[in-house]
Write a structure and sequence with these properties.
Blueprint (H helix, E strand, L loop, with lengths): L2 H15 L4 E5 L11 E8 L2 H13 L4 E4 L5 E3 L4 E8 L4 E6 L2 E7 L4 H10 L2 E2 L11 H6 L3 E2 L2 E2 H4 E8 L2 E6 L24 E11 L2 H18 L18 H7 L6 E2 L2 E3 L7 E3 L5 H19 L8 E3 L4
Parallel strand pairs: 2-5, 3-5, 4-17
Antiparallel strand pairs: 1-2, 6-7, 7-13, 8-13, 9-10, 11-12, 11-13, 14-15, 15-16
Bound molecules: flavin-adenine dinucleotide.
């Protein structure tokens, strides 16, 4: 990347936001994996307005941009990220009714778990599967997050997105939702984000609070039973057409395999955990080992659910 462009952007961001701009910020401090080298420039956008200004500045200086939610579904390279990383923290939320329907509008930086809990507390069904999922609404839309049979795509009606020409609304049908995918996924790792999610409008259904709380308790119990407590980014691979990835990895005898401080969790084969101080390269080596072994043993291709971000050699 052109280092003069980066210096000019740095000065422009500093003029506007002072020491809120961080230089060479370790991404390990901003990811659930606690892994990842430095971002050249890093800044938190507290509002959509701030985000828009930051995006415009990055574009004007021709510096690549990466938008981060809560960093719970990414593995950032040890060499870090070239360009500007913006963590989106615009998190306004509004509940309302329209044509007799219970609606929830949330900015993309809103915490998914918080709105799931709040919806349950209000006796509104549709998000109770998300109480155990960390991350932001924007990140959940990108990966069409889901659990226990529920998906973001079940409830999202409309999205507000920011593209080069400005903000506009799109319908859920235009979002390209599929299993752990949307039209937004992978855009940042494949050379520059074209669209940023600003907000999502969701439709919920009234249901008894007691029934919702019961479901939440059951989901929480099942999650605690199955999921490791060590830092991770959740499930590493998507399920294949026939099998859960964790089952294949378990059958391949890989649970407990270690590379450096990274390990395929002995508790759940689809979680690669950070035992403390793991490098991204260690996690990547285990990813490749799992893919090669499962392909060789069972002829099944394991496709990544998490995104590999930044400068990989
Ligand atoms: C312990 C644990 C359990 C998990 N369990 C589940 C589960 O049950 N089901 C599930 O689906 N996931 C699960 N996950 C994965 C993760 O929590 C979800 O995918 C979450 O929705 C990611 O949100 P995020 O804000 O952290 O996204 P990030 O990791 O910050 O970003 C992910 C991608 O989305 C992009 N992005 C983020 N915000 C925006 C935006 N506003 N506009 C455009 N692009 C954006 C980023 O550029 C990146 O490409 C789990 C993770 C952990 C650590």
């Amino acid at each position: 990347m052109d280092s003069i462009a980066l210096q000019n952007l740095r000065q422009a961001l500093q003029r506007r936001w002072g020491d809120r701009l961080r230089v060479d910020e370790p991404m390990a401090e901003h990811t659930s994996y606690r892994i990842g080298g430095p971002a050249d420039l890093y800044i938190v956008a507290e509002s959509v307005d701030e985000l828009t200004q930051m995006v415009e500045l990055a574009a004007a200086h021709d510096v690549p941009l990466f938008v981060l939610g809560r960093g719970t579904n990414v593995l950032v390279a040890d060499a870090g990220i070239r360009g500007l990383v913006i963590e989106l923290r615009a998190e306004r939320v509004r509940y309302f009714t329209r044509d007799g329907e219970a609606m929830l509008w949330a900015e993309a930086g809103a915490n998914l778990r918080d709105i799931a809990r709040e919806s349950v507390a209000r006796g509104l069904a549709g998000l109770e599967w998300a109480v155990g999922i960390p991350g932001s609404v924007g990140g959940a839309v990108v990966g069409n997050a889901g659990a226990f049979g529920g998906y973001m795509s079940d409830i999202v009606r409309r999205l507000t997105i920011l593209e080069a020409s400005g903000a506009r609304e799109i319908s859920a049908a235009e979002a390209g939702f599929g299993y752990r995918v949307s039209r937004f996924k992978g855009a940042s790792s494949s050379g520059g984000r074209k669209e940023i999610i600003l907000a999502a409008e969701m439709v919920l259904r009234p249901e008894s609070k007691a029934a919702l709380e019961e479901r939440v308790a059951e989901y929480t119990r099942r999650r605690e039973e199955r999921q490791p407590k060590e830092p991770s980014a959740g499930s590493v691979f998507k399920r294949t057409e026939q099998y859960p990835a964790g089952f294949l990895i378990d059958q391949a005898g890989l649970k407990g395999t270690r590379r450096g401080q990274a390990m395929i969790s002995p508790k759940h084969g689809n979680f690669i955990i950070n035992l403390g101080g793991a490098r991204a390269a260690d996690v990547k080596a285990l990813i490749e080992l799992a893919q090669e072994t499962v392909w060789r043993e069972f002829g099944e291709r394991l496709e990544l659910e998490i995104e590999l971000i930044g400068e990989w050699s």
